[in-house]
Amino acid sequence: TSSPENPCIIAVLKPEVVNSRRLSHEDQERVLQECVDEALNNGVLITRLKTMPSSVGSGKQRPLPQPALKICVTTGLTKKEIEKAGTTIRHAITKVMQRRSKTLGVPLIG
Prior knowledge:
Blueprint: E1 8-11, H1 15-20, H2 25-41, E2 47-48, E3 69-72, H3 79-104
Antiparallel strand pairs: 1-3, 2-3
């Protein structure tokens, strides 16, 4: 979610993409890290959302949250710079997913 007070977006892979490509939790983390790296190569810094491990000795196994990207905006950017960064992020994700489709032989569309 995002709001003027908290200009951050948490982005996850769509469930149909995860299911159609049979992506494990680790696969999703790898894909998202490739997206982070690709965006950085094009001058935009984003990160993967990090999670805290379950408490040691708690005896309860918590389900792992879905891997995600964390995208934050600073007030120091102009509207044009924000739009350019958004386009760069979108292109980075598209490039990574297309590259993985070719590698895995899985079509982009269901």
